[in-house]
Prior knowledge:
Blueprint: H1 2-146, H2 150-169, H3 178-196, E1 199-202, E2 214-220, E3 230-235, E4 237-240, E5 243-246, E6 248-253
Helix pairs in contact: 2-3
Amino acid sequence: FHFAFTMLGGIRVGMAAGRVASRRSFGPISALRNTSSRAFENKNAQRMRSMRVQNVFGARLFSTDEKKNSEENAKETSEKEETVEQVVGEEQAQEPAEADELAKALKRIEELEAEIKTQKQDTLRAYAEAENVRERSRRDVESARTYANQKFAKSLLDVADNLSRAIEAVADEQRDHPLYEGVMMTEGELLKVFGSHGITQFGEVGEAFDPNMHEALFTLPSEELEKNAVGQVIKKGYKLKDRVIRPAQVGTVA
């Protein structure tokens, strides 16, 4: 046990001596580290002071620029307000004159619209009259073209009447005579020519009396025919197209 205790004491003494030696050997290094740390801290402190100075100076410069810009903006705003007031004043001064001009312009517009309306009505009326004249002229031209031979046709009606009278005057026993046949053929050819030019013959016993187509010369009694019917034909009537150029002369049943 004495030997073990002696060895343990030696070990403790050796460890203590080692710690002392270690402190002695690393002491300069620790001091150097402490010195470097203090130098770094001093440098950082100087940098922070420099940044604060720059911030303060920049803030002062920014404050100066802001003040300058504010003054310029205020001046510009004042100039704009003066310009607006000047424009408003000019517009207010011009408003009465513009109102008068507007009233005159509106009145003139109303007058022009009234004139246009009147001229439009006159134009429509003139156009309608021109259309009526054109239509009448067209009808007149067409009528003249259609009934151009009316006078010539009327001049031949007496010839047709004479042929009819000659045929009626021939006695029954003489109707096989060549002269009678010649007169019949002549009348037939004349009526054929009339038909080719739009001339038609009308007027037969038993027709209903039409005052537009018949001329009543007398009345006669009849048991076979109805009242107001054509009972006897004195002269045949003729039409050119749809126009009566001579009414039939008849006697009507009473």
